[in-house]
Amino acid sequence: MYGSEARSLLHPFLLLLICERPGHGYELIDRLACLGVPDVEPGHAYRVLRNLERERLVVSTWVPSETGPARRRYELTREGLADLGSWMARLARLGEVLDACVTRWGKAAARAAARGTDASAPGPRPPGGRVPGGRRSSSAVT
After folding, report:
1. Residue 129 half-sphere exposure, CB side, CA atoms within 13 Å?
2. Which of 75, 16, 26 is nearest to 46 (CA)?
3. In terms of CB atoms within 10 Å, which of 48, 54, 77, 116 comes out highest?
4. Is the per-residue pLDDT at 5 higher than 50?
5. Model confidence pTM above 0.90
6. pLDDT tens digit string along 32-63?
7. What is the rounded CA–CA span in Å between residue 84 and residue 10?
8. Measured between alpha carbons, how far is 23 from 73 in angstroms, rounded to an integer?
């Protein structure tokens, strides 16, 4: 997924990564990129992590670092695991819907190609050049 579609799902993505292995913020951001969600702004990731902590889905503890200042390490709570389970059920359903959409697109594009039409072009205009809302389309003859 690209852009805001993937970034809008940081909540379940971060819960999943923390469930797999607790970690600190920048490490989680790196792991998001491996999950297919690159270029997450650290400020956005940290806001989501703070919200997860506020909702008691994760807890954080300060862990000393050998190479610099102490860092917050995020761990999943029991409530976080339950929330992640709920998200995964919803995402599985969304995956089914997206798969059906992509399959239908493939069939529609193949039919359009067989007819020699451009599948990305707008469909036929209604008689009289009218479009919904009573406006005339720009291709209507006056």
Report:
1. 8
2. 26
3. 48
4. yes
5. no
6. 999 999 989 999 999 999 999 999 999 999 99
7. 12
8. 5
